[in-house]
Amino acid sequence: MTMAQLLVRNIEEKVVRKLKESAGVHGISTEEEHRRILRKALLGPGAKRASLKEYLRQMPDVGPDELFERGPQPDREVAF
Fold it and tell me: What is the DSSP letter of 35?
């Protein structure tokens, strides 16, 4: 798949500054921030969702796996 290029001219300095600030907050390039804004505006908020791998990598480290191990579970009656 080939990707097109887009050149936007005569943008107000205030808009460029805000775009750079937003990119900095998100830790991405100004160009990527621009792509994301256009994608969201034209295709909707769910246009490009993170992959499962990306989603899992964003999860915080909450401790070693041993903290979440379950011991033996006794059988119990379940009321219907």
Answer: H
Q: What is the pTM (predicted TM-score) of this model? A: 0.54
**Is residue 56 in a domain?**
yes
Phi, psi of 10 (to 5 degrees): 55, 50
Spell out the per-residue pLDDT of the chain, length 80, in tens: 788 898 999 999 999 999 999 999 999 999 999 999 998 899 887 656 677 888 888 888 888 988 888 888 888 888 87
Whether 19 and 30 have beta carbons less than 8 Å apart is answered as yes
Number of domains in the chain: 1
Range of the domain at 31: 13-60
Domain-located, residue 73:
no
Cα angle, residue 74 at apex, residues 69 and 79 outer, rounded to 5°: 120
